[in-house]
Amino acid sequence: MGADVELVSPFVLEYAYKRSTGPVIGRFLTSLRDGRIEGVRTAAGRVLCPPVEYDPDTGEDVQDFVEVGPCATVLTWTWIDAPLRDHPVQVPFAFALVQLEGADTSMLHAVCAPREDMATGMRVRAVFRDERVGSITDIAHFEIDTGVSKDLVPNEATEPITRFKAPTRLEYVVAAGATTAEFLRGVLRRELIGRRCPSCEKIYLPPRGSCPTCGVRTTELVPMAQKGTVTTFSVIRIPFEGQVLEPPYAAAHVLLDGGDTPLLHIVGDVDVDLVRMGMRVEAVWAEQLEPTLASVRYFRPIDEPDVPYAEIRGHV
Amino acid sequence: MALRDVHVAGFAQLPNRMNLDDYDEAEMVQEITAKALADAGLERSDVGFTCSGSNDYVMGRPFSFAMAIDGLGAWPPIRESHVEMDGAWALYEAYVRLQHGDVDVALVYGFGKSSLGSVDAVHTLELDPYSLAPLGVDPHAMAAMQARLLIESGETTEAKLAHISCRSRRDGNKNPNAPHADEADADALLADPYVREPLRAHDLPVRTDGASCVVLRVGGGGPRIRGIAHIIDAHQPGFRDLTTSASATKALAAAGGAGGVTVAELHAPYTSQEVILIKALGLGEDVTINPSGGAHAACTPMVAGLTRIGEAALAVRNGAPAALGHATSGPLLQHNMICVLEAE
Amino acid sequence: MNERCAVIGIGQTQYAAKRGDVSMPGLVREAAKRALEDAGLTWADIDAVVLGKAPDMFEGVVQPELFMAGALGAVGKSMIRVHTAGSVGGSTAVVASHLVSSGVHKRVLTVAYEKQSESNAMWALSQRFPFNPPVMAGAGGYFAPIIRAYMARTDAPDHIGLKVAVKDRQNAALNPLAHLQMPDITEEMVRASPMLWDPVRYLETCPSSDGACAMIFSSDGSEVDNPAWVLSTAMRSEPMLFPGRDEVNPRAGADCATSAYKDAGITPDQLDCAEIYVPFSWYEPMWLENLHLFESGWKAIDAGHTHLGGKLPINMSGGVLSSNPIGASGMIRFAEAARQVRGTADKHQVDGAKLAMGHAYGGGSQFFSMWIVGQERP
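ok -> structure tokens follow
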């Protein structure tokens, strides 16, 4: 790996959120699980479906539940030829706003019908999934209303729905950016290269493309020493979600010799109880280098006298 | 109590491009703020309040705005705030802040990147988490349902939408800050397949990376903010009339109306949304729409709205007696801001 | 300033690890409806809504002001969403108060919330973003070295952190809304609790909570007979990392405080009490010094000056150490300051409080927001 390394990487942000529903959404989802659709009535008499806890016009609490549908009218629609991963139907279908019988608002959902039969104003009917869990997708989709409803597969569950899982997944392609890429190419050569601000002449490591205090672009590259001093630290003794290292370990601020900003890194090869402020350390590189600062596995103590506290006091 | 007169003293943008990979957040902010201050003839030390708009999910990580302040030279410490919204709302916050009399210059910026690839998914995640987001509905599908309502109610046609796209992209090609778009005549575009019927590729916004910055100043000349207001509508698409924008109409009234306006910069990512806004704002044929190419030709998340206000200010600088900048947020024009600028 | 600004309504939810009984709209409405009731107003009386919370990744909803517009009665009105990291609850209140003091709006509702139980904050904050160094320590591990630096600099004895941890939980026992209820807590219990991020122990840290806080501001305060008057607001920011940065005593915090006192026309010794943002017990002594409240923070604590009944009671509500719905935590500080001068702080009321301060901070101790509220109309 060298100067031509491609510093672009995929990144996935993925989590299954746990949604608590509260009484109104909970009842709506419980009804869906039981194969019925309910709306809510506002003080003004308007029936909202999908239900919300409040009248959107006034902010006041909604009053009572009203069964709506399962038949509905398509108010508008669009056709999806190639469904996306997150779409509720995985064959060509329509997204539509459908107004359920008895409701004064429309609800967004999927309609499955031949493309040539899709039309605004068409009558459709909710089709429930066989296995229902208390989700808006318990309605599998709507289909053309033939006047006959399919038999509902009964559901054994009786507990009211109070929560559901909401998995989310976002996919990114992240580029390192010119300043970071230059630094990381140095890392791949086992070099630590800072940047100096032309105005205050301070050196930043990791480098900043813009000096945070002066607001001007940094320009000069400065290869840094790989020895430094621990200015302060903490011993991490608990595991946490997303953690890469096995506790206990020492997370320290390491001020490299000649540098101006501390680097947040690990101090290793030493009993964590012996780590101290003023301790002299040097970088230990990984065998396999990667384009992040993790290529420095940790800093380890070196056989030099501690730096007196007075000299590091100004560096937190 | 009378409000203080606030002027757009400076405006700058990074060119909206398909990809600004080389810049990180701080570098984008460093460059646009320096340029906008130069445009205003001011120094960083003149700034009394700084406010920005950006979105963590667009940038892929929490606190992306915190990294961006490294571009400001925020030392000694500055008065600073941030909205998780388009930069236009940061401008609104700054406008309100300037009313207090203790500071006279505000720096406002927004930044965003579409090239990270997630903008559509981010729009899905802004939908109601109980009844909409679980359906995974994408923003193009949402816009298409709105467009169909508009077409079937006789407000527009697919051909008219194609003409809007042609005009926007032609104007965008004259704007060095918009990306290059291939130009085609409307008839040719109508032969293309639908992406989300009745919308074709040319009806969708060109998603870009970018950043823009406006310098506001009390007094000192330059386009004056005659009125600014924003209003939000109900969220659920089935709870409101999608063929108009009640909130845009109301915001314009609250901003004092469009009297004398000859140029309007509308934050209408989709061609159909331009039709809706023109109607909701009552803009006549004598008003030039989106001379920059608009947000349709260059749609940078968290930036396109602020840029509309900046472009409206440029129109006033270039001789328009008054110009209107519009910003939107949320699905199907849910939240709308109007800023009317006029020559002094 | 064109107009005055008065706090005329305050509403808070019950704070808890998990509010599984409400949706997100239900949570914010619980706080907002209580604030309306407190002010004797209805939704229709409100002109604008300002919403604040910490990163959207905590709940996985992007720009939640959009789907919450109806829940907060904001449809047909203006709405702003503020996000300034941990200081957000405070800065949200500041932005909302400015809508009134500028003369733009007459009555404004502000709400801040977090529903941490929808996800895991550590997950959201520990994502390994490409090309960035691995997250080595999490939030506590980030602040622990700063605490160590404070201890080294001031020779503060180890028991100071224990004392603050006990004091705030004893105060929380007087506040039925507080998440942690540990009336029998002792210094020994704190000392014996697990060391998490040495030198920070488990009971010296804040919990993770669900909750929301709301306030209503008006320009003339005539809606109620005991408004709290906003005497000053201040916000300051500085970069997270630069040479010579003093994160133990950050200048942005000190400048923010100086500005807040000056604009209120007071000196810090005039304050009757203060709610400051203390997510780890050691941040109380640090902020006491940073905010010019005591020359030596730890000595003031050791002398009992910050207890209820002391010279300057701090975090009468139990503080962030007892309830921490992150995005709301700053606003709760501001709201508690207002409750004190309104005389509505129930069992944690400081007798005769006339002047109080609310404070919040965020990021790497780099974003600060504050206000001073008073009983007397300025």
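Chain A touches chain C through 75 residues (CB under 8 Å).
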